[in-house]
From TrEMBL:
PANTHER family: FERRIC ENTEROBACTIN TRANSPORT PROTEIN FEPE (PTHR32309:SF13), TYROSINE-PROTEIN KINASE (PTHR32309). InterPro entries: Bact_polysacc_biosynth/exp, GNVR, LPS_length_determ_N, P-loop_NTPase, Wzc-like_C. This is Polysaccharide biosynthesis tyrosine autokinase. It comes from the Bacteria. GO terms for cellular component: plasma membrane. The keyword Cell membrane applies.
Amino acid sequence: MIDFEKRQEAEKIEIKKYIDILWKKKLVIAIFLMTVSVIAVSVLSNKTPIYTAKTTLNIEIPRDPRVIESNSRSLSNFQLISMYYQTQRDIISSDLILGRVVENLNLVDAYIVFQKSKDDNSLLSFFSTKREREKKNYEEQKYSIINDLKKNLKVEGGDRTELLTLSVESVLQHKVHEIANSIAQEYIKYNLKHRNEKLVETSNWLDNQLNDIKLKLNTSEDELRRFSLKNNLVNTNQQEYSANTQLENLNKKLIESQNSFSKIRELHDRVEEISSNPESSFRSLSIVINNDIIRDIVAETVSISRKIDELDDRYGNKHPKMIALKADLKSANASLDSEVDKIVKSINIDYVSSKEELSNIKALISEKNKELIDIQKKNFALKRMEREVANNAAIYESYLKELAQSNISENYDISNVKVIDDARLPARPSGISKSIILLGVLVISFGFISVLIITLDMFKSVIVSPDDVEKYLSVPLLGFTIKNKNLSKNSKVKFLARNANNSPELLESFKSIRTNLFLADTPNLSHSFLVTSSNPLEGKSVFSLNLATVMSQLGKTALVELDLRKPTLLNKLALANDQPGIEAYLKGTSNSLVPRSVDGIEGIELFAVAHACDDAPELLAGQQIHRLFAYLKENFDYVVVDSPPCLAVTDSLVLTKLTDRTVLCAQSNHTKVTEIKESIKRLNKVDANISGIVITQVSPKVLKQDSLYYNAISYYG
């Protein structure tokens, strides 16, 4: 809470600081605002008032696309709707509509009369305009007015609504509403005429198209009929189904035939293999082994062979029974060979017949496939023709309806555009009033000049007024001296404080500085004061003279000049350098200090430099300088030391060790802030006891901007 209050208080101080800056520049601000006001009033008085009139139209989107384009698509699409309303806006602002308005309202003469009344205020303007007007013919003036209307006509709406607003701006107060209403009426007339022309054009186009479509329909029907009769396409679906069934059966037979042929081919290949090998026998074939007749014959031969073996030992080969048995065995083997040959021949015959059957089935399948493809092609062609006939019939019926509707629409004179609000005579000019504009200009100008003044003040590079010390520097302000032009004219009269009768404000300012010095020094009262500056010619020596003068009113005062390089006090006091100066004492060429008195001022003794020295650093580092200050502190109540500038040389930095207090002088509107800061930095490095800053030669104009300083000094001075 405390931090918030401190922050709020700091903000108030900051705002007050800005207000003080602006208050000091109040005269500049007032002059700037007066200048801006005069210019603004002049510009506004010469500005021709503009009047605005508005009318609102309701434009319904034509539901019949023929009105927009005979063969266009539906306008339900948002893009097409936007395109339609954009077209209407372009038509309203076209040369055709605006040209008719100019002619109907005779705007050429109206503008000539208005321009003449305006030019009557200026004779030169009248003659120049008259010459220009004489050069233009009627058509040029007409198109010039049309172009002006285009620039000042705004057509808005139609994006998400069917309402369009026509806004017209013109200098003709009593004509502007007539212009807006006339534009709306001319657009309605154009729209109605265009709509009727489009309907007639559409009707004629539909009539021609209807004949073409009728002929196309008849042609397609005839082609369908001839194609059906030629290809016997009575029931194409049944034909296609029959062909598919036959093809399916053939595929089944093909599979069976392939299986059978595969088995027979295997036997045939075995027979061929045995035929090519003499050692092999057909009796090893599985079909031979498994044949019942072969089995019986083989069993018979086995039985006969067994009997022959049994009787061979008993009877011998020539026994009749043996002979009969061998004859039977031979007959059985012959029968066996005969049966085997039959089976082999049967295998060959079956192989040839199976192969031929397989080939025939494949040929039938190929034939049926071609037949089915042919049927499908004819069926597709038939359906295409049927669709073409149906489409032509539908188009023909649609065009019949369109033609009937077009013939009906031609008998009606109805527009899709209606006026919702008529334009009215404007009572006052459009836009912001002149008083508000003037007020706005003044507010903006005040803001601009305020920002400019505050910005320039923030970036100020030199000290100008006493307030600048508080704003830019971290040391206290002891006071300031006023610039006196009357006294500066005479180079011999520069000891200003002794001319107090001529400048009471100046004397009061030095007394104030003296008081501030003592107040800054309590409770330990100082006796010696070192006066320095950042640069030469900043009023340091004159200030030292005047400070010593006001100090002498309180006690015995010594004014010591230790600017050994460039002494100025003797010259400022118009004193001769015919006796040894303080530099002689420091060098040891003189054993005694010989002060000089200042005419007209009691209680002050001057120890000045008679001749400039090049060895100032050595003299200030010697023992004599310490003896000098010991003598001064012992014999004088106050000592004022005029030292060199601290940025130019280091002499003043050395002398701060020998004095109680340091006073830094800065000339108003001359000494830079950065230079003062650097001087303070150097003095702080040597631990100088800085009492504060004195602003010299402050202009009375600057003080007048700060009533606090000026009023106080003027009252007491």
